[in-house]
Amino acid sequence: MKEKRTLMDIVWRVVLYAWSLTILFPLIWVIYESLKSNPEFFKDIWALPAELRWQNYSKAWNQYSFGQSLLNTLYYVGGSLVLGLFFTTINAYALTRMQFKGRKLIWGLIMLSLFLPGINALVPQYVIMRELSLTNSLTGLILLSSLGESVFYLMLLGGFMSSLPMELEESATMDGATLFQKFWRVIVPLSTPGIVTVGVFKFLGFYNNFLAPFIYLSDPKKYPIAVQMYSANKQMEFTADWVTLFAGVTIAMVPSIIIYILFQKLLMEGATMGAVKG
Questions:
Q1: What is the extent of the structural domain holding 184?
Q2: Contact status, residue 84 vs residue 146, Cβ threshold 8 Å
């Protein structure tokens, strides 16, 4: 039996459709403009292109180094994601599933960091990275990004792990499982939706990270996509090749869209289940 829709249901549906259009329209417009020539773009941004210029993507990939920067980004984001997600998962497990002296104090110190702007750590971090000869290195950037923990991710994954019954670990202990075996074979598989949720958030954070790569990397050949887009945008002051820049922006959007399509179901499941304990 179908539920009867009220007037407010229709109003909210229209509002949500309108909101989604405000998000989709700029994306579609960028793709649309990336298939024009520069004269067509400057003449009329709304007119249809005389022909679809797919060569703009080849030019963005090669001449403006979006291809190299995308490979750099995959290395930087992939390494940071694997290490960072492992540290976040094991830290969340230790702080929510294990009982030890000082646990509440550690949680309190972690929560205190919420009130400290991250920009305050920029100078000491740079000094440490410089002394360890890790500046101008994507590997050094991976270590910096993965070792820096986020309270939000700990709270999100910790809330998800807290909802799992303690009897699961007690049964594993009776079967002779070690602490790491309980973590790896019991908690991690059951926490997959939460881990995927944190992983997607971390991916977006690393992928869109501009400040750290901009500060620590001095070699343009090592730029990730966010810094390369900034560099290409600065070149527009002299070349005004905007359609190629739009093509580069479109290339930069592809990985995020793919990640969302692949993990949207687990993302929604993890975001909702982690908020309910029972």
A1: 60-273
A2: yes
Q: What is the pTM of this model?
A: 0.85
Using CA atoms, how far apart are residues 83 and 105, in angstroms rounded to an integer?
25
One-letter identity of residue 261: I
Asked if the structure places residue 27 within a domain, the reply is: no
Q: For residue 61, which of 249, 204, 209, 255 has the smallest C-alpha distance?
A: 249
What are the distances in angstroms from CA 210 to CA 54, 168, 207?
A: 28, 42, 8
> What would the two tokens of residue 87 be?
């540290």
Cα gap 45→36, rounded to integer Å: 9
The total number of structural domains in the chain stands at 1
pLDDT, tens digit, 9 for 90 and up, residues 152-162: 888 889 888 88
Would 154 be classed as within a structural domain? yes
In a domain, 142, yes or no: yes
**Beta-carbon count within 10 A of 126 CB:** 15
- pLDDT tens-digit map of 87-110: 999 999 998 888 888 888 888 888
CATH of the domain at 254: 1.10.3720.10
Find the helix packing angle between 55-62 and 242-273, rounded to 10°. 80
Say if CB 241 and CB 38 are below 8 A apart.
yes
| Measured distance CA(21)–CA(203) in Å, rounded | 25
Contacts of 66 (CB under 8 A, 6+ apart): 60, 225, 228, 232, 248, 251, 252
